Amino acid sequence: MRKRKQNRKLGLKRDQRDALLRSLAEALFMKEKIQTTHTHAKAVSQFAEKLITKGKKKNFTTEKNLSKLFSRKLVKKILDEIAPRYNGRPGGYTRIIRLAPRKNDGAKISIIELVK
Question: Which domain holds residue 31?
Answer without folding.
Answer: 15-114
